[in-house]
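stage 2 :: seqdesign
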């Protein structure tokens, strides 16, 4: 059995469990009743705020596991051998808005951490969530792959901050398209709109480096099709 180093932000766990139990109220009433009875019992049995907070952290973590929510993430990670081989710590943190959702890689003295910011409400659409996680774990694989030559500090090459921001935006779109094309080759659902497809990645080679994507992003001729 592969070891997966996966952790979740307490705030993310609590909100996801809360959203999931709201769905359960409409179906599995007995499960929902058990959840609320246990929650009420914590209020009754704890006398200090510190004790209550600790009990609730354990309570929501237990229900997060019981509802199979961590399995959604683990099953998809298993589809990415490079992540399993590299064994980074993957930390999922609650994002407040769509704009805040992103994936970052940190490397401190060879110890790698992948931070995925994700809105808890995404749990309400399992199909979309699975597609999104595949796209972000493919992005993670790119960052971990020596062939991709990932660096968090890119020389964007613009002559002004405005130009740099335009290059950064085009680079992000290109990377998304590169991920999207590889996902569809595997027969996976993608999260990107249909109209963004077909800009040269359908028949493109299987491997790009980060620098090669950046070079495409610097080319102003690509701006109209990436806007």
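stage 2 :: out
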């Amino acid at each position: 059995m592969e070891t997966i180093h996966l952790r979740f932000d307490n705030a993310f766990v609590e909100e996801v469990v809360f959203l999931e139990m709201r769905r359960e109220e409409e179906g599995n009433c007995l499960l929902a009743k058990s959840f609320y009875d246990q929650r009420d019992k914590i209020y009754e049995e704890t006398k200090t705020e510190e004790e209550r907070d600790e009990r609730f952290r354990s309570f929501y973590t237990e229900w997060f596991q019981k509802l199979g929510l961590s399995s959604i993430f683990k099953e998809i990670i298993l589809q990415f051998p490079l992540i399993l081989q590299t064994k980074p710590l993957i930390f999922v943190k609650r994002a407040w808005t769509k704009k805040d959702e992103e994936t970052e890689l940190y490397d401190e003295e060879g110890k790698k951490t992948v931070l995925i910011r994700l809105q808890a409400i995404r749990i309400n659409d399992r199909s979309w969530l699975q597609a999104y996680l595949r796209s972000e774990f493919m992005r993670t694989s790119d960052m971990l792959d020596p062939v991709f030559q990932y660096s968090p500090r890119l020389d964007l090459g613009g002559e002004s901050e405005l130009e740099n921001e335009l290059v950064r935006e085009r680079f992000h779109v290109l990377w998304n398209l590169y991920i999207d094309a590889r996902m569809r080759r595997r027969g996976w659902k993608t999260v990107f709109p249909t109209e963004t497809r077909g800009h040269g990645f359908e028949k493109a080679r299987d491997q790009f480096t980060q620098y090669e994507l950046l070079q495409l992003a610097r080319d102003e001729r690509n701006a109209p099709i990436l806007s």
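stage 3 :: structure notes
- Residues 132 and 191 are 6 Å apart (CA to CA).
- The longest helix spans residues 161-185.
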